[in-house]
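Subject: Ligase-associated DNA damage response exonuclease structure
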Amino acid sequence: MLQTRQEGLFCPLGGFYIDPFRPVEKALITHGHADHARAGHGAVMATAQTLDIMAIRYGPDFTTSRQVAKGPCRLGEVTVSFHPAGHVLGSAQIAISHKDTGTTVITGDYSRSPNPACAPFEPVPCDILVTEATFALPVFRHPDPAQEIMRLLASVAAFPDRAHLIGAYALGKAQRVIMLLRQAGWDGPIYIHGALQKLCDYHISQGIALGDLRPATMQTGKKSDFAGQIVLAPPSAFAATWAQRFPDPVICFASGWMQVRARARQRGVELPLVISDHVDWPDLTRTITELNPDETWVTHGREDALIRWCELQGRIARPLRLLGYEEEPD
């Protein structure tokens, strides 16, 4: 039912691509991250929130035509449906069904950890599961994100004269960290870099209560304005002079990759926060076990270990080795 082409994953029976790397005539998009959602396609089908997010990121003319995914839809000889992936706001798995070949589910990026900033993952029975493998090594076992936030708040309390700067990607991670802080009892202001503003505003418009957000700009011209405060910014901001405006900042980074201490050191991260929007090894293998597909196709990361695990479990599996997803941001 699916083919791998230079443009990405293609469904010949439906005449569309899923998260293609290059502009194509018809694309189905799982979510709004830039490595999955690109501008320039002739037609795009996605959830209403993903279409909104693409318009925010690329402008209203990011595609010639757009279609909101609502319920099962017939495309060519197949029926497609979108189901929550638990990754970021608007993220979806795409199920493709055909009377002769059964149902194939493309997960896109997904998470089974509770995320207050988006709809939870929905298990979808299938004959073929196309799963990501971003953290597909047994060493990756993500801790409870609430405990990581408590570590952050303990550091804020221990260093009241310092600002805590948290690197968080603009779509999904920033809003999840904000929501986790609110759930942990932080009801004060949270300062955000300007690059996060539009997507935070969009989450608020979708009913995600982010609380008191303020621009991370000087109010009195003194660094002490931000003593004891929490500031969120895209990780790229920390390499610029922007970060120097804060008092003796504690550099933090919220990512599943922070489990790899060498990565934290390379980025100059003082307080790594292991908060991921992807499945870790236990949730990845649990998903395959629960869905029990006839075949598992693996992409987006560390394919070899998961292929080997499937073989040891007596499962049929194969790597897709698609270009463009060698390492997912998280």
